TrEMBL record:
Residues 225-290 form the Signal transduction histidine kinase subgroup 3 dimerisation and phosphoacceptor domain. Residues 264-291 form a coiled coil. Keywords: ATP-binding, Coiled coil, Kinase, Membrane, Nucleotide-binding, Phosphoprotein, Transferase, Transmembrane, Transmembrane helix, Two-component regulatory system. The keyword Kinase applies. This is histidine kinase. GO terms for molecular function: ATP binding; phosphorelay sensor kinase activity; protein dimerization activity. The keyword Membrane applies. It comes from Microbispora cellulosiformans.
Length: 416
């Protein structure tokens, strides 16, 4: 049937009397960024602006109080011009991050990297002219900002630029000014600055990589949590819906045999299962908390439900000293037992089941067995077994499922 001819999935045809579909409502806008994340971004932006402003203030105050200081002649003029240029470049790195500072087609990160390159070169030249500490501090800040804020393909050229500029100045290839001191002292100072630049770059880049790894781990944790919740909801619905199908099929057969009262009991039981399944689905996210019932009690309730719904026995045998296990382990055992018992209902109707729970040192084992059934069962796709096996592997355990000489066996072993 073509899609346009299908009635609305909830039963009533929503087309207008003229036969046309009602107008599609406008898509709701995407939800805004969470308040915590946006507040954190604002705090980081303000901290970056304050840090750059502090570096500019430190540079100006340090050069003003150091020799030769500011002036309009000789070395003082060079110090003045280089300080102004470095301060302007640092200020532009702040402005370049503003949303309205540059055209949208410009790469703001690339512009900031270029400005940091100017800051590095100007600070090296200023250090050669003034022989003062503030210029070295600006140099280290520029190298650290390049490594911490930009990927290696952009930060590494800036590191090489700094090393090349230092080598050119302190080797005399670019005589910015006549450096004082012996040639050996100039070489030692140049090597010391090169080593310091490399150390600052390495530390800043390591911090950047650690932050990236932390963010990646957080993203993987979110994806794993979503997959776990999806697995929980699947297991809950598979258990409850399969049991409802059994009851409704029984009700249908009873109605054909004019046994209406028994059929009504089956429908009531299916309704109760649907209600319980909905409540359990609502609690799926909180199922890993410590308010879960102990394993023996949960398995006893499962066995009782199997008996009341099928009329067949479901024995429970608990071996070993009982103890509470980690919530995720207990949940895996319960969900595996639910899936295995549901499979008995579906694939071996009329067959009893037996559940064995064994507490051992460092391990917990669950076994669900059932003899062969003479009645034909409902074929399945095997996705339940795949989900149980994935759940066991995520916890470092194993799951075995297959036919035996006495019927069918599901065995789960998990560390505990």
């Amino acid at each position: 049937m073509p899609i346009r001819d299908r009635p609305h999935r909830f039963g009533r045809d929503r087309r207008s009397p003229e036969g046309s579909l009602p107008p599609t409502p406008a898509r709701a806008p995407a939800p805004a960024q969470g308040p915590d994340r946006s507040a954190s971004a604002r705090r980081n932006a303000v901290a970056g602006v304050c840090l750059r402003a502090a570096v500019i203030a430190m540079l100006v105050a340090g050069e003003a109080t150091s020799r030769p200081g500011f002036g309009l002649t000789g070395e003082r003029l060079g110090v003045t011009l280089l300080t102004i240029a470095a301060s302007v470049a640092l200020a532009l790195t702040i402005i370049s991050r503003l949303p309205v500072a540059l055209p949208r087609r410009w790469d703001k990160a690339l512009v900031e990297a270029v400005l940091i390159g100017f800051v590095i070169v100007l600070s090296i030249a200023l250090d050669a002219v003034s022989h003062a500490g503030p210029a070295v501090g600006v140099l280290m800040f520029g190298v650290g900002a390049a490594a911490a804020r930009h990927p290696l393909r952009r930060s590494l050229p800036l590191l090489l630029l700094a090393l090349a500029s230092l080598a050119a100045v302190f080797s005399g290839m670019l005589p910015v000014t006549e450096l004082t001191g012996a040639a050996a002292d100039r070489t030692d100072r140049g090597l010391s600055l090169c080593v310091s630049v490399c150390v600052v770059f390495t530390v800043a880049y390591a911090i950047r990589e650690r932050r990236a790894a932390t963010a990646a781990q957080a993203g993987e944790a979110v994806l794993a949590e979503r997959a776990r919740i999806a697995r929980e909801i699947h297991d809950i619905l598979a258990h409850s819906l399969s049991a409802q199908i059994v009851h409704l099929e029984g009700a249908r057969l009873l109605l054909r045999a004019d046994r209406s009262q028994e059929a009504l009991d089956r429908v009531e039981r299916a309704r109760e299962l649907a209600k319980n399944g909905l409540e359990e689905a609502r609690r799926a996210v909180a199922a890993l908390r410590d308010d879960m019932p102990p394993l023996p009690a949960a398995l006893a309730a499962l066995a009782e439900d199997f008996h009341s719904s099928t009329g067949r026995e479901c024995g429970l045998d608990v071996r070993g000293p009982e103890r509470r296990l980690p919530p995720e382990i207990e949940l895996a055992v319960i969900r595996t037992a639910q899936e295995a018992v549901t499979n008995v209902r579906r694939h071996a109707p009329g067959s009893p089941a037996a559940v064995r729970l064994s507490f051992r040192d460092g391990e917990c084992e669950l076994e669900v067995v059932n003899p062969p059934s003479a009645e034909p069962g409902t074929p399945g796709g095997g996705y339940g077994l795949v989900g149980m096996r994935e759940r066991a592997e995520l916890l470092g355990g194993t799951l075995e499922a297959g036919a035996t000489g006495d019927g069918f066996l599901v065995r789960l072993r998990v560390p505990a």
